[in-house]
Amino acid sequence: MEQGGTDLDGASLLGPAEVRRLAAELDVRPTKKLGQNFVHDPNTVRRIVVAAGLTPDDVVLEVGPGLGSLTLALLPACRRVLAVEIDPVLARRLPETAAERAPALAERLQVIQDDAVRVSADRLRPPPTALVANLPYNVSVPVVLHLLAELPSLRRALVMVQAEVADRMAAAPGSRVYGVPSVKIAWYAEARRVATVPRTVFWPVPNVDSALVLLTRRDTPPGRREDVFRLVDAAFAQRRKTLRAALAGWAGSAARAGALLERAGVDPSTRGEQLTVADFARLAGVALDQPSTTDGPAV
To answer: What is the pTM assigned to this prediction?
Structure first.
């Protein structure tokens, strides 16, 4: 495996020896709680940057930069990197690593110590146009959904996530793994799994493989996101049931759920995994147009 010290347009990338040296210097022990697995293969971070399709004008948001492996590869490829890091020790060290290993590019880096699941748009200036990140396994979908909602400036994203999660994010209706993450991400973007990443490029080595998912922003369907997402949650809460039965609580009764489904052009005997995000949006709109006349909960 290639060692560090490889120059990439002014950035000297981290290899296995450099990653371990930095971790020892900072007394950092990767934790499962934060989902920390550090990439130590220069070829992998090069591959991620190429797949992201960045331009020199892009402002890139990186989540969980850790020791800086991907950060160093991003700096030559864009105008600015906004790195959101929750760990204060890692956040303090990252600018020094950039200054040491990419001195001509270090001024492009801005580190924000914050939780990516909660970070607000006003902390991320200039507005990021692309998200490129090796996301912690335990929060990958919530992070992506939060950032797509919070940052309309994001036009595309390339995220490295657990392979199983990548399949769910990019799944199409009818797929065995199509579910809540698939539909909610489809509200914002087209998702496509573009590559598999072996577990051996990480330290410590996780017990799963990873994959790259490319997200391309598109216009959202009509309707309110909150209404549609509430409906999606209800449809998949009991995914083995028909939609008529699964949506009884949401609609106020099974009979009303069936009537709303028929009005939206959806077979009441089908299941949630057969519906596109546009179908869910249309059904939510029908429910708003047809308020409940029963004592059941209003939709």
So the answer is: 0.91
